[in-house]
Amino acid sequence: MITGHAHDGAGVGKVEGFTVFVPLAVQGETVRARITQVKKTYAKAVLEEIVSAHPDRTRPLCPVYEQCGGCQLQHLSYEMQLKQKRQQVMDHFMRIGGMTDVVIHPVLGMDEPWRYRNKAQVPFGWINGRAVAGFYASGSHEIVDMESCLIQHSANDQAVAKVKELARKLKIPIYDEVKHRGVLRHVMVRTGYHTGEMMVVLVTNGEHLPHKKELVRELVDSLPQLKSVMQNINTKRTNVVLGEKSRVLWGENVIHDKIGDVVFAISPHSFFQVNPVQTKVLYDQVVRYAQLSGEETVIDAYCGIGTIALYLAKKARRVYGVEIVPQAIQDAKENAGLNHMNHVHFEVGRAEEVMPRWLREGIRPDVIVVDPPRKGCGPATLDAAVGMGPERLVYVSCNSATLARDAKYLKERGYQVTEVQPVDMFPHTGHVECVACFVKKEEN
Ligand code: SAH
Predict the structure, then answer these.
(1) Of 80, 127, 200, 366, which one is least surrounded by beta carbons within 10 A?
(2) How much is the pTM?
(3) Where does the TRAM domain start and stop, copy by copy (predicted)?
(4) What superfamily in CATH does domain 103-108+275-440 come from?
């Protein structure tokens, strides 16, 4: 009997008191599963038979869903996925945060939860002497050939298919990761959702790319939205997709996209949210909780390329952003220039160091936005935030477990979470994003 779900969407059940994880099984179902791995406190199993199926179970649309590690929830109706994600957030607030009175709204889902990704990253490899490109099979490094990915923008799908076709036709040596030989390692494609501009990045093991001219000409002839063809050189034995060096083979070195009316330049290395439709939904929720009038000072901690900072900047007097990755701050500054915003100040550094310094320097924001990685903020950042005494703190989180932990910490220091709005940024996967609104409690 499956009694719950893990954070990645896998079903969780107990056998004689021992916890067993069963991917693809659904809460409420009785299933037969085969144990494949036993650890100290839990076991992993594969689903063999569904004895009683959940009424919301559906047939996955993708033909390779069960082999691919990309999606985890396609076996559930979209409505059920959203319910499950909300339940997960509620459970975390109750179990970890010790809070039962927080308003957790229904998850804001997509009207059309397919083909939402603006970035494709596809590895090339060999299977039985045949060049393939697709995805790594779940939990392994074996590449499965694939024609189409249903959560990918269809223009990206077409571009990947074209590169694959040309690589075969022109006999471009495909990289073999075991022997560390061959040339073409990955293709990355990015499409601007609003602008339609497309970038193709060919990742190669070395400077030399055979048939470069022909390859580029054919890409340009067959992909009308193409604005940029880049070569990225990665000669390391690594799973990291991009190497440090990129060069333009044709067109521009960046493409542009918009979130609301803020423009962003995107290069091969730039971090840019992958679901542009839901990014706007997420940021609009941040705007609602921030309640800016145009007079406020705002901090955006863990700001990436400054997307939230710039999105809020039109309604603020001054905005500060801090981020650990220097290249991201470089992008953030360029994007501020692109949007003619000179009241936004970006700094490279660790939030847990820069925030306390800003506190000492006397910066007193009216609103603080944080958007930390999965491990959450931690005490140093939160203590500094509390010390600055903002009216409101808006917490964007990709992990409701650490959000709930930090909510408890903030509550003990006078900041009460009033409501939480989950947003579905990654339909069909186990991820759930939340925006939480904290307000300073009145001192009596
Ligand atoms: N707000 C951005 C990015 C959020 S992702 C957006 O919406 O696009 C979280 C960011 O935190 C990443 O860019 C990561 O590089 C950064 N980060 C991770 N640890 C950090 C730390 N200790 N201090 C500051 N930034 C950090």
Answers:
(1) 127
(2) 0.92
(3) 1-49
(4) Vaccinia Virus protein VP39 (3.40.50.150)
